[in-house]
Write a structure and sequence with these properties.
The strands form 2 sheets. The chain has a 6-stranded mixed beta sheet with strand order 6-7-8-3-9-10, sandwiched between helices. Strands 2-1-4-5 form a 4-stranded antiparallel beta sheet, covered by helices on one side. It contains 11 helices and 10 strands. Helices cover 40% and strands 23% of the residues. The two termini are 32 Å apart.
């Protein structure tokens, strides 16, 4: 059964069709990668799913409920979380305070001072931080964290609304290979533990082939292929879009297989 169902989605800017009639679905417990070259329509699709852009046509259903026309905050409260290419946290607050803020926001609670709010949701925030491996750093300011740790805090913040669907925009951007694999392995474990679904965009093809259950490929606003990583690896249209003629994803896929093997042994 589909959690997210996108049907004939379209968006134009002036006379340019940024997204042109794409359809796909996403099941609970699945990581779906949305890939394509620059200008393919990935960001536009992402922003329509989370309500930052309104689709010109088509439908986006979350558990059967229409998302088109809803505001981002309403969609967030329906169970759609999001992380960003550049991690967004409050640098002046501690790690645990950042997560507490997200939890309080989800519960519609407002306090006149942070001191009054600080006693609320701390235990719940610590549980989320434990799930992303950041509980030991709960009382450190976010401003002193390594970038990979900030991304983990952002992931805990995204979990504050117990999302059914998590949107991850370039989750490993700016990270070293070891950090990338650590973050994505953590994300995959959260998907397993929580039964949620993840839709993510990513330029690092080794990450995509290592962690995506399925992939959808856009080019010039149109969906040109979808399937499992090995199916995409051998798809002639995808190879042409990325490489032209004579090159393939084979070496990248082999590297991803090695990463998966290493993660499985860890």
């Amino acid at each position: 059964m589909s959690l997210l169902k996108v049907q004939e989605l379209g968006k134009s800017f002036g006379g340019v069709k940024a997204v042109d009639g794409i359809s796909f679905d996403l099941a609970p417990g699945e990581l779906l990668a949305l890939i394509g070259p620059n200008g393919a329509g990935k960001s536009t699709t992402f922003n329509m799913v989370n309500g930052q852009l309104k689709a010109d046509r088509g439908s986006i259903l979350l558990d059967g409920e229409e998302l088109v026309g809803r505001r981002p905050r309403e969609i967030w409260r329906m169970g759609v979380g999001r992380t960003f290419q550049i991690a967004e946290t409050f640098a002046s607050l501690t790690v645990v305070e950042n997560v507490q803020m997200a939890l309080l926001s989800h519960d519609h609670k407002l306090f006149s001072t942070w001191r009054r709010a600080a006693d609320h949701k701390r235990d719940e925030a610590l549980v989320l931080l434990d799930q992303v491996g950041m509980k030991a750093q709960a009382d450190r300011p976010c401003s002193v964290l390594a970038y990979g740790d900030v991304k983990r805090v952002e992931l805990a913040i995204a979990m504050a609304n117990s999302p059914k669907l998590l949107l991850m925009d370039e989750p490993t951007a700016g990270m070293a290979p070891k950090e990338r694999n650590s973050l994505m392995a953590l994300t995959k474990q959260l998907v397993i533990d929580r039964g949620m679904a993840v839709l993510f965009t990513e330029h690092s093809m080794d990450v995509v082939f290592a962690y995506a259950d399925r992939m959808i490929v856009l080019a010039r606003g149109r969906l040109i292929a979808q399937g499992k990583p090995l199916e995409i690896r051998d798809h002639p249209k995808v190879q042409e879009v990325y490489f032209g003629s004579g090159k393939t994803f084979e070496k990248i896929a082999e590297k991803a297989a090695a990463v998966n093997a290493a993660v499985g042994e860890a």
